[in-house]
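Checklist before submission:
- one chain only
- standard amino acids only
- sequence pasted in full

Submission:
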Amino acid sequence: MDQRLTELLVRVAEALERLAPPPVATADLTAADAFVWHPSPPHLSPVAKVSRVDIALLQGVERQKQILIDNTLRFARGLPANNAMLWGARGMGKSSLVKAVHEVVNRQLSGCLALVEIHREDVRSLPELLNVLRGRPRRCLILCDDLSFEREDSDYKALKSILEGGIEGRPDNVLFYATSNRRHLMPRDMIENERSTAINPAEAIEEKVSLSDRFGLWLGFHNCDQDTFFAMVDGYAASMGLPIESEALHAEAIEWSMTRGARSGRVAWQFIQDLAGRLGVMPA
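Returned file contents:
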């Protein structure tokens, strides 16, 4: 009887060990300048080479550049800084600017800042990520690209508590940047539905839009005009050394933008990629 009981207890203990989540591996934040967070199993994966463009090639966002550089430099130097939300027109360089600013700050302050990307679908694991980063000597900039929430999505409540107001608060060595096409991170019909069905419509709206209020810094990105689009195209073409006259370049760029129905940094880059391929120019 004792033997059977012992075997049963061993089996129960082994089953519980299999069910228990694995311990979070200690991250070596000196292994790289950028990491991607993976919640299952929880770990930071180093990124050998970040996909980014030089900050000088980002046109039409001069004010946003300077504000974000200043805010990030203050944080990197240990001074007070704000979480930032970059919102607005798609393809206008929101995430590209964050990655470019990270490079600028690391050049000025000798690699003091680690960039950590968290995917939108992993936002609910953000508290676990903060615990991994909390108290580490290196400062960390967390980036969540294309952050938004849909109907019946409750992750925004957890994010609100993490950004501001949680009992532990945001770690001193962590700053959070997010990009979104929506200023309030939620579709308009979701907010209007809350207004129409709530007992107190004003309170329902406050609950929904208060998430964006947790970001002390808002930077808006808007559709560019044709001159700015040409400046983007010229900059990309020069950086790749494309053998084409300015007049022909602009004519082809206009045609390309008309087929896409938009002018933006992303459209300019896609046009240059296509043109470089047709001209047989290899990327640097």
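Reviewer check: The mean pLDDT is 84.
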